[in-house]
Amino acid sequence: MNYLSKSSLCLLAVVTSLTATAQETLSDKLQYKVTGRMLMDGGVYLRNDNHFGNGTEFNDLRVGMKATYQRWDMKVEIGYVGSKVSIKDAFATYTSGKHIIQVGQFYEPFTMDMLCSTFDLRFHQSPGSVLAMTNSRRLGVAYTYNATHYYACGGLFTDNDISNLKNTSQGYAVDGRFVYRPVNEAGKLLHLGIAAIYRTPDGALPDDDNKNTFVYKSAGVSTIDNRNLIYAEVDNARHQVKLGTELLIYYGKFFFQSEYIRTQVKRRNGLADYTGQGGYAQCSWLLIGDTYDYDAAPACPSRPIGRALELCGRFNIVDMNDRTAEVLGGAQKDFSLGLNYYINKHIGIKVNYSYVIPGKHIREISDKNFSVLQARFQFIL
């Protein structure tokens, strides 16, 4: 029995123990509701030497269901993006006080911007540094301890999602995230976090050219034209280690969020190890509205409370070039400004402007600066 299987059985034993020791009389009624979201974008490239295509798209279109039975919750969502239908979240959760067990397909506990809902993002896309160095949802199991001032989460995941299962041995990942919240009250929050991932690559079929390879890629600030600005392919990999730090501050109408991410790949056959890194800082101010909400379960930022008008700014930088490792994945910087109007907790309108400065070895486009103006209508159930 491999390490991943043994660890999964240990976590299953914890679930059984927590269930057996629960003393409260819980409702025997099954509760459920239909969920869904629609994020419709339009974009125009104002400086367009790369001949990017203007247009509209559904950035995120989903339908799903949430169900609750006693201490158990389940969520399943199916999404349509880029002419493809795929399973998004598909997991069950058991909660006992401050203890949470989650099993299925969901995001790994790494980077708070990737963990928060797309409806709650300040801008149309997560920063390029986050997109390049985090994964989509993965199959796995995780345990979380969530208290007022402390949050800790650890998980075991495969390197595949439901839509990308291979007929070969899957890689695995061990994840950990810790958050300290010395200030955590209505309208005031100080969130300090650190996270890490250890991951092995997938196996490969004999005719697969992508054996023992990690890929880091990002389309940048918009998917209206989804060419990759960042694309680093690191072959002959033994394993990778990712580290991330987090800072989140709420103070009344003021909001500040920042992360730094670094990845290192240990390689085989005498090849030099690879390192990529990036980070971002963003802040917001409520022109209308009183304060921001906070999603304590995944320990990540949420939207303003009630009707609100929000002014936002962000700076992002990512560098996936490593000359020593002879991997030149590209670098970029970008500045973004946004104005977001939340009509209510279900409906919002967002307008973003981004100015992108391509760096050395940028992929698929020229190295000339460009900008894009985007608008979004979003609806969530």
Automatic annotation (TrEMBL):
Any Pfam family: Porin_O_P
Stored Gene3D superfamilies: Porin (2.40.160.10)
Source domain of life: Bacteria
UniProt keyword list: Signal
Signal peptide location: 1-22
Protein name: Phosphate-selective porin O and P
